[in-house]
Amino acid sequence: MSMRRVRTVAALRTAVAAFRARGESVAFVPTMGAIHDGHLSLVTRARKSADRVVASIFVNPLQFGPREDHSRYPRPIARDRAAFARAGVDLLWEPHVADVYPTGDRTRVVVEGLSGVLEGASRPGHFVGVTTVVTRLLHAVQPDVLWLGQKDAQQAIILERMCADLLMPVRVRRGATVREADGLAMSSRNAYLAADERAQAVALSQGLAVARAKLRYGERGAAKLIAAVRGVWRHFPLVREDSIHVVDPVTLAPLRRVGAHALIVVAARVGPARLIDNLEWRGR
Amino acid sequence: MSMRRVRTVAALRTAVAAFRARGESVAFVPTMGAIHDGHLSLVTRARKSADRVVASIFVNPLQFGPREDHSRYPRPIARDRAAFARAGVDLLWEPHVADVYPTGDRTRVVVEGLSGVLEGASRPGHFVGVTTVVTRLLHAVQPDVLWLGQKDAQQAIILERMCADLLMPVRVRRGATVREADGLAMSSRNAYLAADERAQAVALSQGLAVARAKLRYGERGAAKLIAAVRGVWRHFPLVREDSIHVVDPVTLAPLRRVGAHALIVVAARVGPARLIDNLEWRGR
Predict the structure, then answer these.
(1) What are the pLDDT digits (tens) for A32-55?
(2) Residue B19 at interface with chain A, using a CB cutoff of 8 Å
(3) pLDDT at residue B283 in the model
C-alpha cells in the first residue's frame, strides 16, 4: 500500500475519480499538518468508514488572525507524510494557497450566530476562514464521509451545521480527543510549549475532569462548574485563563443550568500557546 | 419521454443517481417558475450540453427583500410543468422551503464586493439569497453543467465567481437573453404589466439598442452612453429610471471609458414591476 501525493485540484480529482471508477467510497481527513496521534486516530476511524482515505495538509491563511501564528505554525512536512503513509492514507492532497484561493477570490461561507461566539469571539474571522476553506476542500475531494476532531468542538459543531444547511452530500463524523498520558489534549500547538509550560498545560484537562466529577455528583449550575475549573487552574501559575463557557452543544447558547446535554469549552494561554479543550456531557 | 417530478432532496438524489448509474451526464436549469421562452431556451441548450436535464422550480424567499414581491410572485405551476415537459426536461425538482432551508439554518454564502453593487445596492441581501440558495441546489443536484440566463447578468457573474472560488465541480454556462418581438427581455415579472405599461417597457431594450449603436460608432465615454439611454427613456413616461451603469463585466467596477469589454446594466420601474436588462459589449 503506497500513498500518493497530489498538489493541484485537477490531479486530486483524477486520483479520486480512479477510486470512484472502482466503486470505492472515500473518507476525508482535512488537517493543517503537524500531525499527531489525534489526526492519526481520525485516519484509523476513516479507514473503517470507507474504502479509501484522502487526507489534506493545508495551513489555511484565512483562518488565522493578523496577530496569530500563521507564519510560525509548525510545518514538519516530511514527518507528516511518513506518519500519514504509515497510518494508511491512500491519497494526500497538499495544495498551495493559489490552488484553494483562485485569483480574484471573493467568496466566503459563514455560519451565522455560531461563528462569532466562544472561540469566534476571541478570534474574529477564524470560523469564516474555517467554513470557507472546508467548503472548498469538500468540493475538491467530494468525499462520502468527513472526519473531524472533537478537540475542536466548536469547529465540528459549525461544520456539521454548515454541511446540513448547505445540503452537502457528505456524512460528518467526529473522532474523540486523543490525550497525552497526563490528560493534555493532543494539539499541534503543544509544540510551542517549554518544559515547565508543558507540565502545567495539564491544567486544562484537569479542570474539566473536576467539572465532570461535579456533574456526576449532581452539580448543575454553570457558575459552579466554571468556578470548579478556575479553582483547579489557580494552582497553575503559567496558565492564564482565556475563557470558560458552559453552553448548549448544538446552539452554543450559554447555559445557566446543565440539562440533558452540555458542552464545557475552555481556552487558556500557556506561554506562547493558546490551548483549548472541552468536555461534552450527555446526562447519565 | 416523460418528465419525473420530485420534492425531497432524497428523492432528487435517487433520481439523479439513476442517471449516473447509466453513465449519463446532467445539466441543471434552476428557476423560480413562471416559465417563459427564456427559461425554455436554457432547457434547449442544456439538452445539447448533457445527457439529462434537471430543472428546479423554487421561489426562494431568501432572495426577496421584506418589501419585495415574494408573496405575489407568479406561481402558475401546472403550466410550468407542462412547458418543461414539452421542452424535454427529464427531472423537475419542486422543493418546499423546508427542503432547502433545514430547521435551525444559519449558513450563508456571500460573494463579497460583487453582491452589494448595482442590483445588490437596490436590493440589499438579494445576492446573498441567490448565492446561498444556488449553493444548496448545486449540492442537491450535483450537475455537470449549470445553465444561467444572461438577462440576469450580475447574477450570472456572481455565480460564476462563486463556483470558481469554491472549487465547485460544475461548468457554468450562460444562455442569451430571449426577447419579445418588440425587444422586451422575457421576464416572469412582465406579467405584472398593464397594457400601456407593457407597451412602454420596450424602453429598456430600446435604450440599450441606442447605446450599442453609439458604441459601434465609436463612443467610449460612459457618461455619454448613460445619457443616450436616458434620452430614449425620456419618451416613455411610465418608465421610471432606477439605475443605469457602465461596468467591467468581471469585476462590476464602474467604467469611465469603455475598453475592450463592458457591460451596461439598466433597471427601471414600470408600473408595479421592476424590470432589468443589459448589454454586453465585446469590442472587436
Answers:
(1) 999 999 999 999 999 999 999 999
(2) no
(3) 76
B104–A109 C-beta distance less than 8 A: no
Find which of A107, A110, A162 to mutate to test the B interface (most B CBs within 10 Å of its CB).
A107
Residues of B in contact with A100 (CB under 8 A): 167
What does the pLDDT average to over B90-117?
98
Q: What is the largest CA-CA distance in chain A?
A: 58
Q: Identify the bridge partners of residue B55 per DSSP, sorted by sequence position.
A: B29, B92
Number of H helices, E strands in chain A: 10, 10
CA distance B9 to A78: 43
Q: What are phi and psi of B251, to 5 degrees?
A: -90, -15
- Judged by CB atoms closer than 8 Å, whether chains meet at A135 and B166 is answered as yes
Domain total of chain A = 2
| ipTM of this complex prediction, to 2 decimal places | 0.96
Query: Smallest Cα–Cα separation from A58: which of A81, A32, A78?
Result: A32
Asked if residues B8 and B99 have their Cβ atoms less than 8 Å apart, the reply is yes
Question: Catalytic annotation on B36?
Answer: no
Residue B105 near chain A (CB below 8 Å): yes
What is the domain extent for residue A235? 188-277
Same-domain status, A68 and A163: yes
Is the Cβ pair A165, B102 closer than 8 Å? yes
- Comparing CA positions, the residue from A138, A137, A99, A90 lying closest to residue A10 is A99
Last residue of a domain, one of B133, B152, B175: B175
Q: Does A106 touch chain B (CB under 8 A)?
A: yes
CB atoms within 10 A of CB A78: 7
Does the beta-carbon distance from B111 to A109 stay under 8 Å? no
Residue closest to A138 by CA, chosen among A16, A45, A251, A36: A16
